[in-house]
Amino acid sequence: MRQSSAEKGRRGLVLAVEASSRTYAVAVGDGEYPRAQVAVTRDDPAFRELNELVNQALDSAGETFGDIGTIGLDVGPGSLLSIRAAVAYANGLAFALGASIFPISSLELMATAAEQAHQDPILCLKRGHGGSSYAGLFADGEIVDMRHGLPDSVVPAIAAGLARVCVAGEAKDDAARVLEGVVVEDSGIEQANVVVLYRAARAAAADPERLVPAASPLNEASRIFHEPGSRRHP
Fold first, then answer.
1. Which residues of the chain does CATH 3.30.420.40 include?
2. pTM above 0.85, yes or no
3. Which residue pairs, CB below 8 angstroms and at least 24 apart, start in 219-227?
4. CATH top-level class for 107-186?
């Protein structure tokens, strides 16, 4: 049975689901940091389904599914099959529980992590298919621009005019190669982190405008990479 708005508002547990990196990872809690987190590599033969990880985390935290009010969800880009599986799972769980979803891109999660120790602007890169890259430029905690395409094209398009940039992600070498005259700093951040996701979701839980009833996976065809008016809405 779906929960009423009043019932949902009384549930403070946040569940974070991250599947864009080399692992499936979940974290749960109701404080500044999660009380439990579980992760497994995608190719682990012992891994069967995402629900098992969520159950393990809930058991470790001493909570139940009925306590979940907000689901923080990394919607990609990343491994297409993993992201689709995670989004489908989160959407189904949110519907069953009457919970809300906080969707955020893996690029924004890397930028959030990098901003903790480095100055703006932050350029986040993630490799796609056929030599392409997903690129996102962030400053002051906001999306400046996001693109998808060949790195020789999209990286200069959003960062060539900068004096310096801090780079996060799997394709850091691409930035140093194509950004002539730009000082490129390595953030040391290579992928999205479930604790960063959890903290972002917990902060967003108090703002209904940042929450949705269902999410969609990000891929090369997503509007956010092609239409300026959609930059803030993964």
1. 5-106+191-230, 107-186
2. yes
3. 219/76, 219/77, 219/80, 219/83, 220/77, 220/128, 220/129, 220/132, 220/134, 220/148, 224/105, 224/146, 225/134, 225/146, 225/147, 225/148, 226/148
4. alpha beta
Residue type present at position 28:
V
Could you say which of 3.30.420.40, 3.40.50.2000, 1.10.3210.10, 3.30.70.270 is the CATH number of the domain covering 5-106+191-230?
3.30.420.40
Interval 92-110: pLDDT, tens: 999 999 999 999 999 999 9
pLDDT digits (tens, 9 = 90+) for 111-157: 999 998 898 899 999 988 888 999 999 999 899 999 999 999 999 99
